[in-house]
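INFO  loader      accepted 1 record
INFO  loader      residues=249
INFO  predictor   begin
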Amino acid sequence: MKKIVTCLSICILILGCDSEENSTNPHLSGDIEGWVSLYDDLGNSLQDKSGVTISIDNTKLSTISISNGYWKINEVSAGIYNFLFQKDNFFTVKYHNVQFVGGGTYYLDEIPLRKVPSVFVTELEASSNLSGHNINFKITTSNPDTINRRINVLISKSPVDSSGLIEYIMSAKPLLQATLVHTESAKIIDDWYYSEYELIKGEPLYLVAYVLPIGESSSSISPYNPATKQYEFYSDNVTLSNVVMVTVP
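INFO  predictor   done
INFO  writer      dumping tokens
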């Protein structure tokens, strides 16, 4: 099994209270505050929301949430930042390209973090259906499942490096079943993907899978990074399957 860091990302815009423009002024600074919520892998809200580390990429600025989920970072200079929300045994949330104009106190919406499930993928098998533009999956998990969790199969153009970030172009989310072996055929390659990512039939794609918690089959927080036009996943809390290579159908 390999472990990497999971990252979910979204673009948001933070506006200054007194600003008439959306441009940043590097001479201004201010405070950023908000709340986090925590959920177990069954989707139940946890009362104690402490211990979440909130940090700003490429700075030394960080803080830790208290029991009610509140957090605050003081003296943040105006700029454009990526925010990370991290806690052991929970999926990480990342916000990309946050524009902060400074000059006051600003608020982020409440950020949910979900616990990593105890069930995991022990083996991933996959093959391309060249005539149907499908990728067929055969997935073995550590335990049977009867509560409608889903598996997330990440599909990347680049070899998957277990040392850090996975950038991927699409994913499939087959439903877990009350058996150890799950078979799913996903039609995922269409004309838009061929054009957007310059896919060529016969070229390699790399697949890796993990189990989603309840409530994350369709995440409200997009992992899309507009700077790279790809999706992102990275977490040292998550147990990944083996990596499988298939060809573009």
